[in-house]
Amino acid sequence: MDLSSQNRPFSIKLWPPSQNTRQTLVERMTNNLTTKSIFTQKYGTLDKEEAEDNAKRIEDVAFATANLFYEKEPDGDGGSAVQFYAKECSKLLLEVLKKGPNKKDNGEVAATSDNITALHESIFDISKGQRAFIEADEAQELLRPLKEPGNSFTKICFSNRSFGPGAALVAQTILVFLKDQLKEVDLSDFVAGRPEAEALDVMSIFSTALEGCALKSLNLSDNALGEKGVRAFGALLKSQNILEELYLMNDGISEEAARAVSELIPSTEKLKVLHFHNNMTGDEGALAIAEVVKRSPSLEDFRCSSTRVGAEGGVALSGALGNCTRLKKLDLRDNMFGVEGGISLSKALTKHAGLREIYLSYLNLEDDGTIAIVNVLKESAPHLEVLDLSGNDITADALPEIVACLEAKQFLAKLILGENELRDEGAIQLSKVVEGHTQLKEIDLNSNQVSWSGAQKLALAVVQKADFKFLNINGNFISNEGIDDLTDIFKNSPNRLGPLDDNDPDGKYDDDDEGGSEDELESKMKNLVVDD
Question: Listed GO molecular functions (predicted)?
Fold first, then answer.
């Protein structure tokens, strides 16, 4: 006998349960739904057909959920999964009991199982795990749950998996039968690595399969669409009349593609979310997107960041945004609006009383564009919570208007003014704003040529606020002694102070302003030697 085998631990795997065990559980639940008990006396018994259908669905849902639970701890014996499975069945069974039997219009018990619909999975998501190609055989198995009769999936997410034409055809045969129930479709990043012709073929197949769906949300991001890709989805886009959310981020959408988007979407009256981040749209493309925005009076969340839009496009977008009086979140970061675009945007902001978040970093606004915007925000958007004006070459000359705006925004929770030239005066003025603010919890003043004197006043102001969460003053001109003092100020709450590793203790202003010249002269006078 192998002695080592005597010492080997003996274990029994409890999961998954056998098919006989699962069937026995279905029979027990069917019995619970059809026989007299405290619950059935109160809520009514189900007939056998309805009870059996519900019991099968309950077991399917509980098994699938418990199996996901088991996959997170595959090295165990499965005991925890079994307990989870039993509890889930009990919970779902109780919900069905409380709902009681379905009734027909004439009051008779209906032999259907609609009363368990709410218990069934509503989201079908294959995006988890590693990115991978999918061909026909794998698609048959992967998409099998979508073929189950009576399933209640209303959202599908095929992101992070690359479909070939064969897999797309498999999906097509399934999706055509789900048209009436689908509300949300996520096809982001679903043709990665495919040759252009193949990718366009896949897009066209999905477009045809989903044509006519009454979708509320559609995500086509990360697919390098270009104009050809947009038009490949033409059938689907043209059939959308109640769309509330549209995501077209990182899609390589040029001027021509932007025009195709504007042309192919017939109605955007109900559109609430439009995200158009990281495309190569440019000014001409922005004119086309502006047309979509102009037709979207219900828009609440508009993102058009990193799209190479200059002053002309910025003026067009700003004009269109004037029609979107329900706007709550606006993100135009990383474009080239310039002063002209900033002034045009300020005029549109007068109509956005409900604005909560506004991100306007790296727009080349300079002082004049910034002043125009904050002057308008001072009088509008009373519940503004986030203001981002970083990277706009703003100097201390714009501080009076900025401070006046901030003092009026009593709900402001996050202020981002990094990578400007506000210097010590900016830090000192912000410290005064903080004293009168009850909601402000985050301030970013990184890379603003702030020295120790300004940093100290701002730090002392925020550290006294019990609810304040985070101060970023990295990348400034704070002395080494000042860094030590800052660390000491936040010694009881170090997590509220951001890193200081990019600070330059020897930094100097990069212009020849009067103060800088005086400091330089004073330094030279200290080392001056007078010869006899």
Answer: GTPase activator activity
